[in-house]
Design brief:
Layout lengths: L1 H59 L4 H16 L2 H11 L9 H26 L3 H9 L4 H31 L11 H12 L2 H34 L1
Helix pairs in contact: 1-2, 1-4, 1-7, 1-8, 2-4, 3-4, 4-6, 5-6, 6-8, 7-8
Length: 235
Amino acid sequence: CKPKSVLRTYAGRSHMMQSFWQDAVDFMPILLQGLRLTIVVTLGSLALSTLLGLVWALMRVSGVIVLELAAKGVINTIRGIPIIVQLFYIYFVLPDLGITLSALEAAIIGLGIAYSAYQAENFRAGIEAIDYGQVEAAQSLGMSWGLMMRRVILPQAVKIVLPPYGNIMIMMLKDSSQASTITVAELALKGQMIASSTFKNLNVFTLVAALYLSMSIPLILFVGWLERRFGQGRR
């Protein structure tokens, strides 16, 4: 009896593996379409969040009280509202105000704005980590605030902010799945659509998880390399 039971178990596992690989072949083209949109959303929102985050950070360290308070208010407001609510507001509320965006545009703008607050704090920390003596030296040379930022402060701050910037990239990649809530057919939504029509939840979401890992792991390794390189450089 035992050998037969073992054979049945082995046959069952073999059948499951064959089924999984067959499903992988069948579903992968559809999932790759979602993967492409995931990459588009991630890169687009990363670019926007970087630009806005740098603006907020420069306002915070400008020394102009009005700009500092305005940037602080914007950052705290953005951080206090869940990303999904911001996406809903941009996609569903703005059309009532006469501003209509596609789901993809709303996803990029929503995630970009949401993460700009975290980028701003990252950039501000990097700028403020620069020794104040270098600021005084730049001022003694007659550099304006903008010139000092471009030539002295920001080039050095970049080395400090790169490792946490890499972590933000990983977080944005994973949070791009929230775009599915406003009908962007990215990887997570494609997986849900396939699972709901085939009822093969295990195989489908295993493939979805594997695709996210295939993007996340290289980024994690890259961030680790940045931390080792620039961490050693500061010691």
